[in-house]
Write a structure and sequence with these properties.
The chain is α/β, with parallel strands linked by helices and 419 residues long. The protein has eleven helices and 21 strands.
């Protein structure tokens, strides 16, 4: 019989366009996260990251969580939920005030953070994160612990992530309808960055490209925090649809062909390797057909060419260029396609590696791939449970807000100066 969950337990829930996955973990004695149970179900009712069928999505959530509960032998009551739909925006606000040269005291930091609450301007969107990232002392960027240091001016960079309100409310309602309390809704790029990127990568500057089934999120990290974000309404499911359409077969068959025989790169041998395809017409007594592996790869590469072109445009739009714009980490279910890293490296002209979740003890091999990076990141986020300025009372302190791109460039310069 399942037991009531003890204190300190973390349950992460990732509701994507292709799958709903859940993970139950606890903190070990050394602070490490130990996975107790995982669950996964096909996502039904989610389109491009948005909930389109509340009942179907609620059922998938219930089944995924129940599977994780059975494996863990525990009943859980609350979850940390990821949000990856389009409409996510990221901004960095800066708050600064005069100290007069005295030592920074805790009261100064508290007043600064309270003032920072006034600088949040979601412009009609729902704020998901409003967190202090790095402090500044007399213009020096990248100070993590200002307490006890002398300064004339103390400032803080506040990382804000916001999203369209209705999709977030629908997600919250769906999870609560499954009789689960929502601890917090986390932007997927924030969580995924915790699971896939090293501290040094986040400091020096890196692009994280999450290729989900229906959404591709392109996000930039520098100075230790997320500084730019762009969502593209495309993903790995579009490749599956192209394969199904090209060969007249069902999506399930097309997905299987893509996963087992597909590749982002072609070889001469592919012209000789034959694949059996069951067209939809064959279910009514028609014949199966044969295609070459090269034909399958040709369809895949045609869609990839378009998607990489859009990712390249997104990186340019986010000003990810020059010496700091060299490292790209590719993750999400689309990153499991064979040869995708080499293809992306050539298409983007940058160094590309596949981002997989790391740092979780007891994570099953089946959930250790890039498709489960967001799920792992949600657990890491929950374990750290960072400060949110929305819980701090507002003040009348005057604030200064530079442009996001100007701050991004200063963060890059600061990172280069420190290494």
């Amino acid at each position: 019989m399942a037991k009531i969950a003890p204190e300190g337990l973390i349950t992460a829930l990732d509701i994507g366009s292709s799958k709903v996955s859940a993970l139950i973990a606890r903190k070990g004695d050394g602070g490490e996260l130990i996975v107790l149970g995982t669950g996964q179900r096909e996502s039904r009712g989610v389109k491009r990251g948005y909930i389109a069928d509340m009942g179907a999505t609620e059922a998938a959530v219930r089944e995924a969580v129940e599977q994780a509960e059975r494996i863990a032998g525990l009943n859980i009551e609350n979850v940390w939920v990821g949000f990856s739909a389009g409409g996510l925006v990221s901004d960095v606000a800066e708050v600064e005030f005069e100290l007069g040269g005295h030592q920074v005291e805790q009261g100064d930091i508290d007043a600064l953070l309270a003032a920072g609450r006034n600088s949040i301007d979601p412009q009609g969107r729902m704020v998901l994160h409003a967190q202090p990232a790095l402090y500044t002392l007399d213009g020096l960027t990248g100070v993590k612990k200002p307490l006890g240091l002398h300064a004339d001016r103390l400032g803080v960079h506040i990382h804000v992530v916001a999203a369209d309100g209705s999709p977030v409310r629908n997600l919250d309602l769906c999870v609560r309808s499954a009789h689960l309390e929502v601890k917090s809704i986390i932007a997927a790029p924030v969580a995924t960055g915790l699971a896939c990127l090293s501290d040094e990568e986040r400091e020096l500057g890196v692009a994280l490209v999450e290729m989900g089934a229906g959404i591709t999120n392109v996000s930039l990290f520098a100075g230790g925090m997320l500084v730019g974000l762009c969502s593209l309404p495309m993903g790995a499911a579009d490749i599956t649809d192209d394969v199904a359409s090209a060969f007249g077969t069902r999506r399930q068959m097309a997905e299987r062909m893509k996963c087992f025989h597909g590749s982002a790169n072609a070889s001469p041998r592919d012209n000789h390797d034959m694949l059996q395809v069951t067209p939809i017409s064959a279910e009514d007594g028609g014949d199966t057909m044969q295609i070459t592996k090269a034909q399958l790869i040709g369809v895949i590469r045609q869609r990839l060419e378009h998607q990489m072109g859009e990712i390249r445009k997104a990186l340019q739009h986010l000003k990810f260029e020059g010496p700091v714009g060299r490292q790209v980490v590719l993750t999400g279910g689309g990153a499991e396609l064979k040869g995708i890293a080499d293809y992306a490296q050539q298409a983007l002209g940058r160094s590309v590696r596949i981002g997989r979740p790391r740092g979780l003890a007891g994570l099953p091999d089946a959930h250790g791939g890039p498709a489960f990076a967001t799920l792992a990141g949600l657990a890491f986020y929950a374990a750290t449970d960072p400060i949110d300025l929305r819980s701090i009372a507002p003040t009348n302190q005057t604030v200064h807000r530079p442009s996001g791109m100007g701050l991004f460039r200063r963060l890059i310069q600061a990172a280069k100066a420190n290494y």
